Amino acid sequence: MKQTATFPAGPKGLPIVGNALQFQRDPLTFMRGIQQRFGRMAYLRLANETVVVF
Q: Model-level pTM greater than 0.70?
């Protein structure tokens, strides 16, 4: 039986670029906002990369 990965909650991103545009504008503010909204662990997409931040 195939297992699927379960990722923590995170911000919705745009198709293809994910959250890269938000991150590029102001990385520190973006990451602080994620921490405030989603807690100590979050999932996001930066272009074609999946990132789990904790």
A: yes
